[in-house]
Amino acid sequence: MDEEFALDDPTQLLDSASDFAHHPGSLNDAAVKDFLDRFPLPVIISALQTKSDVPGLENTLVACLERVFKTKYGASLIPQYMTFVQVGLKADSQVVRCLSCKTVSSFLKNFDDKSIYAIKLIIDCDIYQLLLDCLINGDEQVATAAIDAIKNLAQFPEAVGIIFPSNINEATHLGNVASRCSSLGRVRVLSLIVKLFSISSSIASVIYNSNLLSLLEAEIRNSNDTLVTLSALELLYELTEVQHGAEFLARTTLQLLHSIISNSSMESILRSRALMISGRLLSKENVYMFVDEPSAKSLISAIDVRLGLLDSQDTDERESALEALGGIGSSIQGAVLLLTSFPPAARHIVHAAFDRQGGGKQLAALHALGNIVGENRPEDGVILNGDAEESLRRLVYEVASESSKLTPSGLLLSVLQQAAEFRLAVSVSS
Questions:
Q1: Who is most buried in 67, 187, 235, 294, counting CB within 10 A?
Q2: Single GO cellular component annotation (predicted)?
Q3: Domain boundary among 195, 216, 242
Q4: How far apart are CA 346 and CA 325, in angstroms?
């Protein structure tokens, strides 16, 4: 910044910026304009660049500028100071880098296509490359702000080619970025991919066709670092919650989940997460439009086998398996598969639901049973087909015949006499 904007004594600026940054409630454009009339942006930026050693000044000015740029008026000034943003994205200070990422977001959110061609400005200032560097090398807050900025950039159709270059050898291709990273950096790249995937079905399609989901699968298959694998599984779980995710995940993910659940040498916590993801994915009615029935049956069989190995153990993994079956059973097709497979995987749920010594697994099983009988399904989807309904009745009567309670109603009564959370669960499932 020019010397004319330099401050010998930043005390007045520090005091005013502190009041501005901590002003209660939202600030309108008039308040921002009034503040900037007294302390123009070049003065604030110059102080931020030259007086950072003044105690409290950097954090105060960063908080002040963040509030300025969140307003429509403040955001309209950003294009004039994009070189400052560019420098800020490369700063040693993490708080300045975080501010710069947030400033990019504010610019993109408030962009008026009549004032400037936003994407051209982003390209000319090499902003996307710098955001990627913030994602990989910044602290956690900087990385989060960088992801948010890239998500906002992805909202512009013209930016899709920047974020997903057709040339796989481009340095900014996310596959290449991940290959150069530490394990933490790779997880951050994967997190960015998941966040971008959630934006729209069209962007999800680009990600799928760019083979970027394979990065996530590769990280999950690499079991050398349990923490990294678990982080990747958490991201996969996040993907299954995306409305349009089933179409893309169903094509490859079921086999991956099957391999984890069937692998007795893997950490129990990893199998538990794979079980929960399986339940989440197969709970969606539309997933069966994209997955073939044998693949779904194979995954259910893997869960069934795992439950058989766990037998009567009251472990977190067993509860996860029961919850997974309950998730699958919440969809009509899933419930039918659970009840008509041979042997029916739903038998684990029914037996555990009426095991008075079951503790946590009994509660999980009761909720799962409620899903299978249609507690969460629409009224026109509660009743299953004849074979499934008959299988459900047979399983309940089978447990009753092995119990001193003798009848299903007696079994239900025995559970209703237990603690409140068990009574609530059984009232739902009945």
A1: 187
A2: cytosol
A3: 242
A4: 7
Residue 404: C-alpha distances to residues 196, 205, 312 (Å): 56, 56, 19
State whether 252 and 382 are in the same domain: yes
The residue from 242, 271, 292 where one domain ends is 242
Could you list the residue range(s) of the whole structural domain that residue 94 is in?
Answer: 1-160
pLDDT band at 339 (very low <50, low <70, confident <90, very high): very high
Q: What is the CATH number of the domain that holds 94?
A: 1.25.10.10
Q: H or E stretch including 245? A: helix 245-249
Contact 105, 148 (CB under 8 A): yes
Cβ count near 255 (within 10 Å): 12
What percent of the chain has a predicted confidence (pLDDT) above 90?
Answer: 61
Instruction: Give the total number of structural domains in the chain.
Output: 3
pTM of the model: 0.87
Distance CA 88, CA 98 (A): 9
Check whether 85 has a pLDDT greater than 70.
yes
Q: Which of 61-75, 92-106, 287-301, 398-412 has the lowest mean pLDDT?
A: 398-412
What is the tens place of the pLDDT at every residue in 32-41? 999 999 999 9
Q: Is 146:129 a contact under the CB 8 Å cutoff?
A: no
The answer on 7 and 102 residing in a single domain is yes
Each residue's pLDDT tens digit, 180-206: 999 999 999 999 999 999 999 999 999
Amino acid at the residue 162: I
C-alpha count within 13 angstroms, C-beta hemisphere, residue 427: 9
Q: Using an 8 Å Cβ cutoff, are 263 and 271 in contact?
A: yes
From CA 316, how far away is CA 360, in angstroms rounded?
Answer: 9
Over the Cα atoms of the chain, what is R_g? 28
Both 259 and 378 in one domain: the answer is: yes
Helices (H), 126-212: 127-137, 140-154, 160-163, 174-179, 183-197, 201-209
Q: Taking the CA of residue 152 as centre, how many other CA atoms within 13 Å lie in the half-sphere pointing to its CB?
A: 22
Residue 320 has pLDDT above 70, yes or no: yes
Is residue 211 helix, strand or coil?
coil
